[in-house]
Amino acid sequence: MTQNRILIRATLVAVSAFLTGADSAPDRWSQAELATLQSLSLEELEPIPSDPTNAVAGHRGAAALGERLFFDTRLSANSAVACATCHQPDRTFQDSIPLGRGVGVTSRRTMPIAATAHAPFLFWDGRKDSQWAQALGPLESEVEHGGTRALYAHAIAAHYRAEYETLFGPLPDLSAVPPSAGPLGDEPARAAWAKLSDTQRTDVTRVFVNIGKAIAAYERRIEFGPSRFDRYVSVVSAGHSGRGILTKEEIAGLRLFLGPANCTQCHNGPLFTNNEFHNTGVPARPGATMDQGRLAGATAVLRDEFNCRSQWSDAPRRCPELEFMMAGDHALGAYKVPSLRNVAERAPYMNAGQLATLDAVLDHYNRAPAEAAGRSELRPLRMNARELRQIAAFLRTLSGPIVVNGRMAVREAH
Length: 414
Known about the structure:
By secondary structure, this protein is mostly helical. 38% of the residues lie in helices and 3% in strands. It folds into two domains: 3-50 and 227-401, Cytochrome c-like domain (Cytochrome Bc1 Complex, Chain D, domain 2, Orthogonal Bundle); 60-219, Cytochrome c-like domain (Cytochrome Bc1 Complex, Chain D, domain 2, Orthogonal Bundle), CATH 1.10.760. The protein has 15 helices and five strands. The strands form two sheets. A three-stranded antiparallel sheet has the order 1-4-5, with no helix packed on it. Strands 2-3 form a two-stranded antiparallel sheet. Helix 2 packs antiparallel against helix 10. The longest helix has 22 residues, at 198-219. Mean pLDDT is 92; it is low at 13-24.
């Protein structure tokens, strides 16, 4: 058992011991239901998986550098955008607006990043297959950070040379590399990139990739802390009543969540997600262009310059996630299932912030309207208003702290 899991267990047991004195009558859960409850507890979360494609994933020095880079607005075209601009620690590492805003406006909702080290694919469409590859995407996006590989390499040389070279070895000679050059920049930046030699392009890209790997070393330490739901599971698993932790309304919502609403079909495990992609008939934003969702993302990750099979991986391999990935027509309009942990703190919802409130989300699932693209997997739940309120009440019990390296995340974006 890892140190974090030991800490979670000790915390939950201590709270359980304090609370069980008030009401020792056990709640009525069958053995099968208790097993399901326990499977959803954060205490059951497996240790953070290793990432052989990132040699510094577990390195404390890399995480320290990655944290500084995460908050550094100099890693953008206008020196005003950092990773933390959208992934704000005081907002559970997201931004609470429908569409992410960097140097421009994106076409999708900012996804939270806590516990994403457990996910095989990143972004709403799964177009990246590692945290470090994911970190590189926004840096070159014209509407997010808006910069180029050369810009970032020069920033490392100017501000982080010692830390970088301790981790990755000597920086290349960048004296002949223009301030802005890259394969995805504007026309002048692309022209400058084309004029560089193969060796220069490789050197600059290696620095760029290592920026992503350092940021990933930090991000993989961002995790969920125990919620009231976790404390409840600890208590009822010990044979005691948890009514001092959850209300009757919340417990009723939990029963609906596990049973008639069938929410655990997709929202299962300690992170309340199966990490897969589903079409749930979410309407498109008015005026938005067609978004293919996973159908486009599956194609993109196979072709990605930085996927786990690429030359930039520290352990190029067959990558079973890519080898056995399903990417047929069923993927049209499908999006990644987000974790429900802290879901009540993350309005608005869905891939482009189409639904403003948690109640609106539950109403959508209850009605199962016709899909905007592809084929929706939803069927009407036909819950009444009271049952929907109960499910919403339960979902709010999943709110808990965000922890970084075992400590609450308190650093604010700047």
